[in-house]
Amino acid sequence: LKDSRAVEPLIRALGGKGTDWRVQNVAVGALVQIGQPAVESTIKALGNENRYVRQGAASILGEIGDPRAIEPLIIALLEDKEWIVRSSAATALGRIGQPAVEPLIKALEDKHENVRSSAATALGNLKDPRAVGPLIKALGDRDSYVRSLAASALVQIGQPAVSALTKALEDKNLSYQASKALAEINPQYKEDVAKATSLIAEIESKKSYSKEVIDTLAQISYANPKVIPTLIESLEANSQFAKTASLVINNTNEASLESFIGLWSKDNKSLNQSITQILKQLGQPSVDYLVTKIN
User: Fold this and answer.
1) Rounded CA separation 293/30 (Å)
2) Which position has the higher pLDDT, 96 or 248?
3) Torsional sign, CA 13, 26, 68, 132
4) Most buried among 72, 87, 94, 253, using CB within 10 Å?
């Protein structure tokens, strides 16, 4: 019937002594069906003394998806004393949208694993690149389920997570989940890993660089954390490796910038010109790095 007069009785049915779980489920479904007219009262229910009422209210607000619920749900996520309420709030915020990203990132450090797992899933649903770093960190969570869900969330975010996942391969605590995520994002990952490993071994044994090998490595840079240092070294051998230059630009981080700038040589004007040109293309990241080093 979707009659708004039923809202308050249905909210009371969410909790209380002896309330049957089947009654609770029916009440949740009915309030979701009522929709907008139930939002204000359901938001108030987030402050109810009964944890099951608060949990049900968070779930309902997530299903309805009204933006008015975002701030109250964030408060519930970060401040409620009961983990079942915080977990339900995380799930709800994952359905409502982007304004919840930062609080959900904070919830990845909640003391209860169920809240952390709900936050990871929610961040995957939102697909916001801001969550990549914190989710990478969550790959090392003490709880295996949280680790698995963090990897799944990174898969949902997709391509924006690839560079960070590649770097995570260097950490033995993160590498297993990182490689799983990379394989799901790119079905060619395992083949590319084998190819990158073989090409790096070839370079190390021959101590020489060919354009074909460098170009191939540039295309599969995500497959092995050794690729970037190898390509930076190749630029020292031949400053005309354009693919190397573009790769350095696209994979900027402090370690690669330090190695890259370290190539500067008084005796190699061609190399120095290439470095200068790439630093100009990098723009602000290179400025920030250089200012930090000067200070």
Assistant:
1) 61
2) 96
3) positive
4) 87
